[in-house]
Specification:
With 175 residues, this protein is α/β, with parallel strands linked by helices. Helices cover 22% and strands 35% of the residues. The chain is built from three helices and nine strands; from the N terminus they run βαβαβββαββββ. Bound molecules: inosinic acid and magnesium ion.
């Protein structure tokens, strides 16, 4: 992929905060009186996960996984492996996977299959962005921040070649 020349803002920090609060409200309602574990997918979900967790009105436990896909930095290539696993026991627990962006869906499919082996009570998905155009496997995004059809997005945790993660807004990179 060539180096990007320009970035165009898609959502401001304020717009993101508003949406994150709405998601946190729905999650808090749905899991009221339940024990919930959030599992964040590193590194991309670290900003979203911290804002989401702080807006919940229910007690939660937090854990993280890290997945690597062989191939280029902007597209997963289908061969995925876990480079950091969960540390909390999840058997009989409700799990909410927190991901930055769903693209082909291969990463989340792999993670769902991995988590199911531990016999959790339920596994749902919360993604900041659902990007539909390149979807290869069906994935149900139970809580979705923003839906877009295509484009390469950075900021608010999302990177291009490890850059831009620290930006408070979401940007569309132009190549
Ligand atoms: P998938 O396995 O194709 O669904 O890819 C998911 C992963 O690819 C995400 O967790 C991101 O790390 C990366 N990715 C896909 N699209 C974008 C994007 O637009 N910006 C930044 N990272 C992306
Ligand atoms: Mg990711």
């Amino acid at each position: 992929m060539p180096f990007p020349v320009k970035k165009e803002r898609l959502y401001s920090q304020r717009e993101i905060q508003k949406r994150v609060k709405e998601l946190a409200l729905s999650i808090s309602k749905d899991y009221k009186k339940e024990e919930l574990i959030l599992i964040g997918v590193l590194k991309g979900a670290f900003v979203f996960m911290s804002d989401l967790a702080r807006n919940l009105s229910i007690p939660v436990k937090l854990d993280f996984v890290r997945l690597a896909s062989y191939g280029s930095q902007s597209q997963s290539q289908g061969k995925i492996r876990l480079t950091k696993s969960i540390e909390l026991p999840i058997r009989d627990k409700h799990i909410l996977v927190v991901e930055d962006i769903v693209d082909s869906g291969l990463t989340l499919k792999f993670l769902q299959e991995f988590l199911m082996k531990e016999n959790p009570r339920s596994v749902r998905i919360c993604a900041l962005i659902d990007k539909s155009e390149r979807r290869e496997v069906p994935i149900t995004v139970d809580y979705c921040g923003f839906s877009i059809s295509k484009g390469f997005i950075v900021g608010y945790g999302l990177d291009f070649d490890e850059q831009y993660r620290h930006l408070p807004g979401l940007y569309h990179l132009q190549f």
